[in-house]
């Protein structure tokens, strides 16, 4: 099924992208309406299934209505919004207006989608819309439950790649999100993403719950903030495609806290923008609930985000987020904030991620994991460092990803460290084989050079409060080195050099700024 779905995704994308290439529309103008049609096709498929089931179970004593569909978690579709109605419209009809009216009618019947669905179809010519409708109609109705959602995510990723750097604002690659979810294990509770983009963290959390034979709507509730109107709409559509609802609001998280976040959430997940400057710290310097360790002196928002994530957790909450590599070694005031967080004993694990894992930037990054319940466990006073830079699957010359087995392997290293039961949901037999190969037939955590290392707070202090896994994990031991292994080692060293160069540039800017201040006085 996986291979068939991948082929279908690529076939659909190639056809849709060819239509765009032959139009005057930019990728940004084209993306949301096309995602809206995937959404509509999915909603119609679920409605059709529910309609058949309801007609069989009906007693004939009353008409089946909107509440019957909503009770089954299905969006109610009025007749003019049914795909079967739209696909049979004659080509001479104003298809764009018909689609706009269909979206308006869905919003009128489903309060959660009010103002969310695209209504810009009149900018497409009729011929293109007919072809797009035929394309969406080619998606088989008998594909497995979440296949529509995966097609939607595939298109999100491809649009992010097409739109370049701006696309990264709404999409985090699914393997990165999967690992974050596997490590923080959101089985039950309230989930918050204050930089939620198109909602990938929420969707993967729901999949995690489903994979463990539970109902996401019963187990988790999701809350998000996002500063861009269009991205909020994408997020709400993504949730609806996956049968989820959530409280996602438009807000600039630096200055606005619409969910009263401090101490509220069981889980926090995010991929915030890196190294943002010009945040007006005077507006937030007195907000000690959200920023308990104070304002960093550097004109860089990384440690604002890090504090937001930590302060949003309840007493036993867990957080997992993507962070710029430079934050792990940043000096001066940022180091002081990092030191306080480490001394609080809440840092659970730090994972180095190699380059080319994101569609829009080639730089490596780091995944940080917090656990506020950790001070009551045997891992108190230690941090697990994982170097995953040499673990990847090459997609093409410029892009990499993690397979499910690689995600499962990395997540189970964290479980071994915590003393939790192993979970082979991701990657199954291949994951289990890799875990036993590395940690024994009865797996028990042990430091592995080049892969993982448990460090004490005293160890971290001796390294200048660095959270850079490369400082602790070291290099793998090899009797002989193949050309490929040498390339990996050389690339790892080059990445470390880039981190040091970035730190040097930051230090140069700080010195120049301080010098300018002295000379002005």
Question: Can you describe what's shown?
Answer:
It is a single chain. The chain has about 525 residues and is α/β, with parallel strands linked by helices. The chain has helices at about 1-20, 25-55, 65-70, 85, 95-110, 125-135, 145-165, 175-185, 200-210, 215-220, 230-240, 300-310, 330-345, 405-420, 430-440, 455-460, 470-475, 485-520; strands at about 190-195, 220-225, 245-250, 265-270, 315-325, 345-355, 365-370, 380-385, 395, 400, 450-455. The strands form 2 sheets. It has a 9-stranded mixed β-sheet with strand order 3-2-1-4-5-7-6-8-11. A two-stranded antiparallel sheet has the order 9-10. Helix 1 packs across helix 7 (about 145-165) and helix 2 (about 25-55) crosses helix 6 (about 125-135). The protein is globular and about 75 Å long.
How would you concisely characterize the structure shown here?
The chain is an alpha/beta fold.
Q: What brief labels describe this structure?
A:
521 residues, nine-stranded mixed beta sheet, 18 helices
Ordered list of secondary-structure elements with their pairings:
Elements: H1 2-21, H2 27-57, H3 66-71, H4 83-87, H5 95-109, H6 126-137, H7 147-163, H8 174-184, E1 189-193, H9 200-211, H10 216-219, E2 220-226, H11 229-241, E3 247-250, E4 265-270, H12 302-311, E5 313-323, H13 332-343, E6 347-353, E7 365-371, E8 382-387, E9 393-396, E10 399-401, H14 404-418, H15 428-439, E11 452-456, H16 457-462, H17 470-473, H18 483-520
Helix pairs in contact: 1-6, 1-7, 2-6, 2-7, 2-11, 8-9, 8-14, 14-15
